[in-house]
Specification:
Helix 2 packs antiparallel against helix 11 and helix 6 crosses helix 7. 44% of the residues are buried. With 343 residues, the protein is an alpha/beta fold. Strands 1, 2, 3, 4, 7, 8 and 9 form a seven-stranded mixed β-sheet that branches. It is 40% helix and 15% strand. Strand 1, helix 2 and strand 2 form a beta-alpha-beta unit. It has twelve helices and nine strands. It is globular.
Length: 343
């Protein structure tokens, strides 16, 4: 009886929520199709909670809305990244999440969970990969320096600095050339100026960036490994690598705005998404990594994914709060020293 009472209070594991509604803000495109099928519909079926899906806005735009409304953006749960999670916690605009109401937080690998701070639940991990055309390059690249090879002259497309992929590429080019992630990025800017000269220009949208690879007008670019894997699965003549110098993970998070109307339903959704079976369904469907170390991963993805434990030496975990402080200066320098070199 006591156990039943505790479950009823927490809501975890119950299916008696009646006609509650949960408004989720997240992404459109393939992401929406997969999350509806593999996560939202099973959640609605188990808990009887109706999910209203809002696919408007990027993570940066969503956080800007949370900030502008002082934590009352009109949605109950939002998919963002660790950067917004940390900033939102610091600003007091996101709810702190604890295992007492979301037990599956305890199942996450500590090092990855810590990247998102107290207000973010890590539901997905991708990394910056080097995507390339297999039918155009003479051999498989192994290093970020491949972007400087003569065969890629005018065959590279780059993200704009507003896309976090550009920041992570800059940092990895810095590490590759003797610098580091934060304090000594001069080698990274020098290398990116040269890569820019190899490029055909810059695009902000991931969908537009990948269109260049699809049509074959460019042969290499940085890209999130999950999206790259979807292109491989389509049978396109592309492949991707985690370069030998390592890479930086994109830590995706679930967050609850401080003024959300349906916090209990949002907590249930987060706990459901972090369940072992839900994480396995998500990894298999969206082709990404998980912060859980105990899930079964499809055979074809096992050698493609990086996790904090076995692959710790290949993953450079960023100090995102320090990175946020550096971005205004770096953005100005990018526009001055990198962009003008593109032809």
């Amino acid at each position: 009886m006591l156990a039943s009472l505790c479950l009823a209070i927490s809501g975890i594991g119950s299916g008696t929520a009646g006609a509650e509604t949960l408004i989720i803000n997240s992404y459109g495109g393939p992401y929406e199709d997969i999350i509806r099928e593999r996560i939202i519909e099973p959640f609605e079926k188990r808990f009887g909670i109706e999910v209203v899906y809002d696919a408007v806005g990027s993570a940066q735009q969503d956080y800007a809305k949370i900030k502008a409304t002082k934590g009352r953006p009109g949605f109950d749960l939002v998919v963002m990244t660790a950067s917004q999670s940390l900033q939102g916690c610091k600003d007091g605009l996101l709810e702190k999440l604890t295992p007492s109401s979301i037990p599956n937080l305890n199942a996450l690998q500590g090092e990855l969970a810590a990247v998102a701070g107290a207000c973010g639940a890590v539901h997905e991990v991708q990394y910056l990969s080097l995507l390339y055309r297999t039918d155009k390059l003479a051999s498989q690249p192994t290093s970020w320096s491949a972007l400087l090879e003569p065969e890629l002259d005018k065959r590279v497309i780059l993200p704009t600095f507003q896309n976090i992929m550009a920041v992570y590429l800059l940092e990895m080019m810095s590490v590759t050339n003797g610098g580091d992630l934060i304090d000594n990025v001069d080698p990274g800017f020098d290398a990116m100026a040269k890569v820019s000269a190899q490029s055909v220009g810059f695009e902000q949208s991931s969908a537009i960036l990948e269109s260049y690879l699809r049509e074959g007008s460019v042969w290499a670019m940085p890209f999130w490994n999950g999206r790259a894997q979807l292109m491989v699965d389509e049978g396109l003549p592309v492949d991707y690598i985690s370069p030998k110098e390592g890479t930086i993970p994109l830590v995706a998070t679930l967050n609850i705005p401080i003024g959300a109307a349906n916090k209990d339903a949002a907590r249930r959704f987060i706990d459901f998404f972090l369940e072992k079976s839900s994480q396995e369904a998500w990894v298999a469907g969206y082709r990404v990594g998980s912060a859980r170390g105990d899930i079964s991963v499809p055979e074809e993805l096992k050698d493609r994914q990086l996790t904090a434990g076995p692959d710790g030496d290949r993953l450079h975990l960023p100090d995102l709060l320090r990175l946020q402080e550096k971005l205004p200066e770096w953005a100005e320098r990018w526009e001055r020293d990198v962009v003008p070199n593109a032809r």
